[in-house]
Amino acid sequence: MKSVDEMQHHPMSERLVNVLCEQTESTNPNFFRLLVAYNFSLIASMMRASIKTLDRGEIPINLYVMNLATSGAGKGHSTNIMEDKVIHLFRDRFRDETFPLLAEQNLPKIALKRANRKAVDPDEELVRVQKEFDMQGNLLFSFSEATSPAVKQMRHKLLMADAGSLNFQMDEVGSYLSSNAEVLVTFLELYDVGAIKPKLTKNSSENVRGEEIIGKTPTNMLLFGTPSSLLDGGKTEQEFYDMLEAGYARRCFFGYSRDYTKNLDRTPDQVFEQLTRLDSSTVLDEIADHLEALADMINVRKQLVMTKDNSKLLIEYKIKCERDAALYPEHEQIKKAEISHRYFKALKLAGAYAFIDDSPEVTEDHLYAGIKMAEESGAAFHKLLTRDKPYVKLAKYMATVKGEVTQADLVEELPFYRGPLSQKNEMMMLAIAYGYKNNIIIKKSYSDGIEFLRGETLKETDLSKMVVSYSGDIVSDYINERPAFDQLHKLTQAPGLHWVAHHLNGGYRNEENCIAGFNLAVIDVDGGVAMSTAQLLLSKYKYLMYTTKRHTDTENRFRIILPINYELELDAKDYKEFMSNIYEWLPFEVDTATNQRARKWLSHDGTYAYNDGEILDALPFIPKTSKNEERKVLMNNQQSMDNLERWTLNNSGDGNRNNMILRYGMLLVDAGFDFEQVRTKVLALNDKMPDKLEESEIMGTVMVTVMKAIAKRP
């Protein structure tokens, strides 16, 4: 079998598609290919053409199409061209000549069978049959709305004539999906072979059950719509997915055009020339004449032969479809159904192409053209199912909207943000969760009882581009730079430099000149904890630690520079709260008065040390976010613990309880506590654990290691 790229579209179809693209000024042919395919199938099925297969018997030709495109894609104009300039001659001839002739041939047959069965006069029965036929109403070439009883009534007329097909063409499927639900169920059953089980109804004066006619009537369906109206994130979208699950995923060809583009660089003269091109009209006239000829009685119930070789080709494609479908997990039933049945849709479309070409058989080229359309349909279907879910769209909207918004703003601006409060809260919760994994944060604040929301797209920190500015002067002449993190020691160790973890406008250091955007958290430790202890406590994190001018061996004074995982843009107020949250999180005392954006730091040629660990996650510390609220709740639940106990519990990873207790004990040893003090604190922390260890186990493991460590002290 050829690759899809090697396959060619149906030639006559492509001639029409090119004209439709010209007439609608569209550069996307996929929408029009499906429109043409539907109309070709309609013609073949009206003539009751079928495919004579060697393995499956007779297959009726019919097509279901769901064609979604944005507004302005040329749906209305292209449909009018197809109806008024392409298939109109066939339609008129079939309606006025072919169908009446076929009915005239078949009604006497029905009358004779009934007369023989009822032992009545055949001529009298024919009168009754003719009356019954007339009572079914006029033949509709296609219809846009219907009820299930009306569909069955029209089907009864077609069965009596043994001709024609049911052609349902719905515009704006998103708006009319609910009102046509019953019809869609009926068409679901009719798709495969054109048969349907009759529904038992009680006879009444208004409803007299007619005599059932056993037979098959092909059906075609064309559903238009815009993606936004169908995929609204609410009831309509759910109904659509229910429709796919019910069986339309395997039955439909799909078109999904989210982008509509025109060539905007043309002059008015060029556009006019394109729209009035004579060769386009010639193409339409030639094809219209060709299609009219297909309404000839000689083509009624034409059987298109499938050769053995082409049957094997279709089987090869069928096996490929089934193997591709098997790769999907069971919960992806909609995708599995669509893929596994592509071959059957391709066969029906190939038959339509063969009939349009007036061919006696379905050729290899017809099959390849059908397969190519089935594969393009599958790609569109995949895009359709992988579209952004409502909560994703909400998160992305929050990330792009400028300023704060309220719930009222969201309801007004977003058509999918609907339903009761519980539904909107759930959507917002999912949007926040999505944001965590996709660099989007959603902040909440309240004023006068009103909830205000603000979204922001986070930029991941590039460790080769850290945000700093520096100067030899305390206030002025600051230079904005982006050095690599592993080169920051050159700044901190340089003689007589002042530096800031923000960029500054105009080189002048004050709050007003701070440019929002930072990726470093600077911690000033002014005694209170040994540098070695801080290094041990922060061993899992990436940092640069360097001593300051007043550092001594007995009174450690140093700074910790922690890169954060995102480059955050916070105003002065939020930055202050952000840094205060980090101070609160740390297990040792720090200078809490250094939480200003324009805070400057003095370089010092002392000692420095890098640690290669994980980058600090900034999300739990960003004000007005759910993750920060979660952190505060956790801290509140751990009120009985001191900072070091809490830190040990929250930063021990997934190790077992014994290792966590040991880690805590060794921190205490490093801090200078004696054996009895360590034992008391270790047992106290163990008592606060929900699944505490036996004291004997602690004494036999943790405290033995602690004793050895204390014994090695100088």
Per CATH, the architecture of the largest domain is 3-Layer(aba) Sandwich
The profile of the biggest β sheet is:
5 strands, antiparallel
Task: Classify the helix fraction into a percent range.
Answer: 40-55%
Report the end-to-end length measured between terminal Cα atoms. Answer: 80 Å
| Chain-averaged pLDDT | 89
Secondary structure tally: strands: 20
Overall shape: it is: elongated
Strand content: 5-15%
How would you classify the helix and strand content by structural class?
Answer: alpha+beta
- Which fold name corresponds to the CATH topology of the largest domain? Rossmann fold
Number of helices: 28
What number of structural domains do the residues give?
Answer: 4
Determine and state the CATH class of the largest domain.
Answer: Alpha Beta
Description:
With 714 residues, the chain is α+β, with helices and mostly antiparallel strands. It folds into four domains: 4-198 and 215-258 and 266-385, Rossmann fold, CATH 3.40.50; 390-457, Orthogonal Bundle (Arc Repressor Mutant, subunit A); 460-621, no CATH class; 638-714. It has 28 helices and 20 strands. The strands form six sheets. Strands 10, 16, 17, 18 and 20 form a five-stranded antiparallel sheet that branches. A four-stranded parallel sheet has the order 4-5-3-6. Helix 17 crosses helix 19. The longest helix has 31 residues, at 88-118. The radius of gyration is 38 Å and the shape is elongated.
